[in-house]
Amino acid sequence: MEYTFSKSVDALSSSAVREILKLTQGNQVLSLAGGLPAEDSFPIQEMREAFNRAFDLGAKSLQYGLTDGYIPLREWVASRMKQKHMNVGLDNMLLTTGSQQAVDLLCRVYLDEGDVVLVENPTYLAAVQLFQFRGIRAIPVEGDSEGMDLEDLAKKIAQYRPKMVYVIPTFANPTGKVWSLERRQGLLAQCKANNILILEDDPYGEIQFDGEASYRSIFSLDEHPTNSCVVYTSTFSKIVAPGLRTGWAIGDQRVISMMVKAKQAVDLQSSTIDQIALHELLSRFDLESHIEKIRASYKERMEWMNELLLAQSWDGVQWEKPRGGMFLWVNLPADVDAEKLLARSVQEGVAFVPGKPFYAAEPQHNTMRLNYTLLNREDTQLAIARLGKAFTEYSKSLVTQ
Amino acid sequence: MEYTFSKSVDALSSSAVREILKLTQGNQVLSLAGGLPAEDSFPIQEMREAFNRAFDLGAKSLQYGLTDGYIPLREWVASRMKQKHMNVGLDNMLLTTGSQQAVDLLCRVYLDEGDVVLVENPTYLAAVQLFQFRGIRAIPVEGDSEGMDLEDLAKKIAQYRPKMVYVIPTFANPTGKVWSLERRQGLLAQCKANNILILEDDPYGEIQFDGEASYRSIFSLDEHPTNSCVVYTSTFSKIVAPGLRTGWAIGDQRVISMMVKAKQAVDLQSSTIDQIALHELLSRFDLESHIEKIRASYKERMEWMNELLLAQSWDGVQWEKPRGGMFLWVNLPADVDAEKLLARSVQEGVAFVPGKPFYAAEPQHNTMRLNYTLLNREDTQLAIARLGKAFTEYSKSLVTQ
């Protein structure tokens, strides 16, 4: 038998990074590579009780359910969204297998092969891969610490006639960046004027370190839900636990209902019991205090990593302290190739993700993403020490070349 | 904002049937329409305990897991497959969100727009819709009670040069049909000779009413796992519970690894906790006895429906008693349009699925699918009585036309 795959699998070919990171599985390599939440933040006991209550509800917890998701959980999400200035009804929402699936479903119902999506530069690598997998062209728009450059956005809109813009405006992956209100409004205005859909991906919005600041979602700034120019997606992965794989998308009912039909075709529905248990959890859980704890813990971890990095005193290495989220984005000296540094680092027992796969077009080779949420204090210290050793040795090898 | 959807959404447009069936939600309509397992077959107490044991394993039950699925559960499936003459390693398998997702993932990595898939006539409607959603042409092959007609298969292969054949050879949906060994071998031989992949969908294989007979999977008849011409998919939905949304696919490692990469792009992974709990259940559960109970219960329900239908003595109505599975496929008199009968039936308080959407090409309008697993004895009796009334009235209206 000779297998002939679809054209789209070309976009799925293994990356050098994935191969290196595979080497880290099951051994003593400390990982700053993933985007995993701290396991001590999971409400295990409360979740166990919530599953028990879900079973008390009887057989329906194990039966097929609605494609768009368990109604009481959708009601809970709607009420939460309302607190954040997003007023939506149940018909404006579907629950998904993580927010990753929301991105896939929207692509499938909204974009054809060859269509253009504008993205930040850099942006979430799995979104870029998903666009490529569907034959969609992802075109980067330049930006700074405030968000996308609105002039470059206008230029790219004129040049590429995109159907969609994909953004993570609050504590972006990988950069940790937060868009200013002005840039959010600017993006929205240009997209409305040009009939371009915005996919606002907000997995990290709740993980905010500076308590007072308020970052309005782009969705909330637009008329909504009807005629909204924005589809907004978020997830329980970072505020409860990722293993339940539950996210949601909200938008105009015409868009959402199409996504529901697509979901029916691709997997019928996500787990019934997980959705019911999540609702049981949330109906008795003090989520606000829980989020406060996560914020405090992640902020402490971020500050600790920042301190450890400063203590390394590497020449020409720069980063901005993130105001939220899970990642620290590092600019290395221009002559450093972060993929080569990774290979050396894995030998020393530490892994990270080089910046390259986060760029939709021309990559910057001298960037890397460090996760600070997974490892504890001691392991983070050890990881940065190992990274320091790898960096020093790698830098020496550059000089001798 | 004016929304412009992808071309593929045309395949997702609402069907008349779906609109009629929507009317049945939340009111007194008895449904023979779905494919829902009997809720009294769910091992609720055992499942509750399994989830508790999963929580005993600690935080990893709520953390991100592997895209291809929880290793101990894959090991369990591999050992189960071995009992059924299918010898596969972990690299030959991925766990999916129900077997529906396995069909989607294989389509995405193996088929391009315009490619042809041969299917039974009729076949599983959600597979047909999925093919159409991806722009794949589904071409029906004629068949009889033994399976596909091998001559028509040869003709269609020559004519359409298909890349894949999709079949449900054991207790098919919607017909309940079981393929003979000869037809299984014949399909395999032709596909091997022509380098055509077979997708063998086997959600119902365990739901067998005649205890002694042994139906070999097509996968088991082929060389495997390497160079297998078959990708086989099944699910826990019918032997444990559908609400956990856990299925699996097995095949050549090259095909499976591509499906894993596609899954990583579309939803990262299915629920961690559900997979761990399922493994906890299965490692202590007497699955064989449980399946025996389901078989006995569904056989009794099937016999009961068969008896009730016979008692109706409808003119020109025919069906074959299924040897397994969840459906009874009914041929109505030639002048009956099952969609019109459905509209009348819903008024009487009973719903079913007309045969039309199960046909990839020219539909037979005088067919319908009845599910016998969901309703209890009394409700089934009431449902068939209502169906009888609707049929009689509808038949009268035909005469007077």
From TrEMBL, chains A, B:
Superkingdom: Bacteria
Keyword Transferase recorded: yes
Protein name from the UniProt record: Aminotransferase
Alphabetical keyword list: Aminotransferase, Pyridoxal phosphate, Transferase
UniProt cofactor(s): pyridoxal 5'-phosphate
Organism: Brevibacillus parabrevis
Description of how the protein assembles with itself and partners: Homodimer.
CDD domains for the chain: AAT_like
GO biological process: alpha-amino acid metabolic process
UniProt key word Transferase: yes
Similarity field: Belongs to the class-I pyridoxal-phosphate-dependent aminotransferase family.
Domain Aminotransferase class I/classII large stretches: 30-387
PANTHER family: AMINOTRANSFERASE (PTHR42790), KYNURENINE_ALPHA-AMINOADIPATE AMINOTRANSFERASE, MITOCHONDRIAL (PTHR42790:SF19)
A single GO molecular function term of this UniProt record: pyridoxal phosphate binding
